[in-house]
Design brief:
CATH superfamily of one domain: Immunoglobulins
Number of helices: 4
Helix content: 10-25%
CATH topology of one domain: Immunoglobulin-like
CATH class of one domain: Mainly Beta
Number of strands: 12
Largest sheet: 5 strands, antiparallel
Strand order of the largest sheet: 5-4-7-8-10
Radius of gyration: 28 Å
Structural class: alpha+beta
Order of helices and strands: HEEEEEEEEEHEHEEH
Strand content: 25-35%
Length: 263
Amino acid sequence: MRLDTLTLLAALTPYALGYPKFTTPAAGASVAAGTISVAWENSGSPAISTLSTYTLTLIVGGNDAATQLPLTAIEADGDFTTGNTASGAVTAGLAGSTTNGFFLKMVSVSSDGGTITTYSDRFTMTGMTGTTAATYLTAVTALDGATAGPALVDDVSTDTATTAAAAAADEYTVPYNLQTGLTKYAPMQPIPGTKITAKTYSAMYPTSAYTVATTYLAAASIVITVTESQTFSASSMENTAAAVANPTDDGSDMSKFLRRWKD
């Protein structure tokens, strides 16, 4: 039986995913360091109301995850019920003013389970006084002026355990000094390589601002730091090779040497 095209589309519509589509900042816009304002609208069906909470992070770098550097959390614990806008502070020293080198990453938690990650178009942060590492600058240059951000990542699942795991995993991508709350998250410890290939060095993350204490500070408020589980593993096995036989008295110099210690 042949289905009419419109009938097929109507049947699939209830299962299409609604997600936030950024409207501000616009593609190729110039945004001054200081306070950044963000806005989005619904795209798709069902409505964006099927999403509950979100995190919103400013990123610099390329469209590949390996070339993206999180700079600051614009909203670390957002709630879609409060509206479709957010704002946050961007410190000028976090990076340099790379043309179309910046974009926003929003990780939204679905009430049905799982997460959906959306990205804004690229824009320029002006008035930035910091330095952006070569890895991220090279990735931006390779885009040749394109303003499209990374592609949407759909990890929506009906498994609530998957939802919790995905939400927790995203916490590890937020720079330590930008996290809030009683629990903080540290990324997985790296495993050293088998050889040194780097010829030069560059900082993985921007330097952190600090204030010199002139009076006694309050007691630490962080209860625990959770480090992402290590996925590296190693295995070993028994050496089944037979042991080498003891040396024999064959008149060699070694045999003479060993006889000296018999008494």
